[in-house]
Design a protein that fits this description.
The chain is an all-alpha fold. Helices cover 65% and strands 0% of the residues. InterPro entries: DUF305_CopM-like, Ferritin-like.
């Protein structure tokens, strides 16, 4: 391995540390995205709507690529892709924002997921059993909630003045997810209007 390559793998003195907001965000958002990818691939397979299948495929591919980017950051920073810290622990600091303050709605059964907006295991099981319009409606509701939770996570990391790589991707995530929420809400309106 060249000296330049060895330096790349070892990270730099100014890189985010293991307990930084950047590392916590990268780990937690990769987990958050993985659930969105799973739900999106279910929609690609099960939805009867071409517009929803197309949107879901784009969401799944985009978020899988972003997972790769976040894991590459952790590798570059010489950090593990996992942590023993509780999910969202990086949000509990002195910025005035913390995990407990997030406005993610609980699932209908009252259970809360570990991260804002995530579907519970019970909700995912129910989604896997659905077909047709019932699937489409449930998917849209879950994904809008999921995206809103992801935007809360993005806002939290942006409030911490992160590393420019993290800032740029987080800003792009927010813009993309807001656009996808608009598209999902239009599909939901169409589903309500269609008997």
């Amino acid at each position: 391995m060249s000296a330049a390559g060895a330096g790349f793998l070892a990270g730099n003195a100014g890189d985010p540390g293991d307990d930084s907001a950047e590392a916590g965000f990268a780990r937690d958002m990769a987990t958050h995205h993985a659930q969105a990818v799973e739900m999106s691939m279910l929609a690609v397979q099960r939805s009867g709507r071409e517009d929803l299948r197309t949107l879901a495929l784009d969401m799944g591919l985009t978020q899988q690529a972003q997972i790769g980017m976040m894991r590459a950051w952790l590798d570059t920073w010489n950090l593990s892709p996992t942590s023993t810290a509780a999910p969202m622990a990086w949000m509990n600091d002195d910025t005035g924002m913390n995990h407990e303050d997030m406005t993610a709605e609980p699932a209908p059964d009252g259970d809360r997921a570990a991260m804002p907006g995530m579907a519970t295991p019970q909700e995912l099981d129910a989604l896997r059993q659905q077909q047709g319009a019932a699937f489409d409606s449930s998917f849209v509701d879950l994904m809008v909630r999921h995206h809103n939770g992801g935007i809360q996570m993005v806002d939290a990391v942006l409030a911490r003045g992160p590393d420019p790589l993290v800032r740029d991707l987080a800003t792009s995530m927010k813009r993309g997810q807001q656009s996808e929420i608009t598209a999902l809400e239009q599909i939901k309106a169409d589903l309500v209007e269609t008997p």
